[in-house]
Amino acid sequence: MARIDRRLDVSLDEPTLVEGFPGVGLVGKIVVDHLIEELGMEHYANVHCEGIPPVTTYQPDSSELVTPVRLYVDAERDLLALQSDVPINPRAATAFADCVTEWFNAESVLPIYISGLPRQTEAEQPALYGVGAGEGTGRLVDAGIDTPDEMGIVSGPTGALLAHAVDHETTAVGVVVESDPQFPDPDAAKAVIERAIEPIAGIEVDTGDLTDKAAEIEQAREQLLKRMQQASEESSRAEPIRMYQ
Questions:
Q1: Which of 32, 40, 70, 161 has the largest count of CB atoms under 10 Å?
Q2: Which intervals carry biased composition (Basic and acidic residues) (predicted)?
Q3: Which pLDDT value is given to residue 98?
Q4: What DSSP letter does each residue of the chain carry, written as one string?
């Protein structure tokens, strides 16, 4: 049965929620994982919804099993984070959206949904813009977040959650950021936190660790590409030879 099982009894006043499903560049997941660790957020609730794969998660330094999708809370900052260890099947995304947004509406939650847009160029700073439903567009204006400069579509569980807000005329914010289509992208996650989460939620978050991770991932990527090139050069292969070539 679909439900949100609370583990903590805390008081929240129209909290902001940040969604962290795996996606392009793993941006949403990196953002949420960083918020939980950096702010010391507490495990607030287990999420039981249709569409979540029937698996369970165990964590370091604990023998307690938990659901793969969970809510974390920072009561002082009126902040919630939706952490997911698994992707949601697109065919089940609508059912999942029905489950969680019913709870969001009952608790007067402002959800911020994050989507990575495959980056086409190596710009110094990833492009970021906001979309919204209901009063979400006003929150984007107040936060000074740019509007899209081209037509686009948001798919997957994040798209289903935003579609649910449009269909039911509720408030939601979507943040779209250019990100690496092949590797985890801490730079894009840093941009989301600094240019979207902080102004919308009215909080400050140290993102220094994300800069360090970006450098580590870039170094690992270069090493991987080098190894792949070496393997290609050393592998035997056949090539066609055309006459008069």
A1: 161
A2: 234-245
A3: 86
A4: --EEEE------SS-EEEEE---GGGHHHHHHHHHHHHHT-EEEEEEE-TTS-S--B--TT----B-SEEEEEEGGGTEEEEEESSPPPGGGHHHHHHHHHHHHHHTT-EEEEEEEEE--S--SS--EEEEEETTHHHHHHHHTPPPPSS-----HHHHHHHHHHHHTT--EEEEEEEE-SSS--HHHHHHHIIIIIHHHHT-----HHHHHHHHHHHHHHHHHHHHHHHHHHHS-------TT-
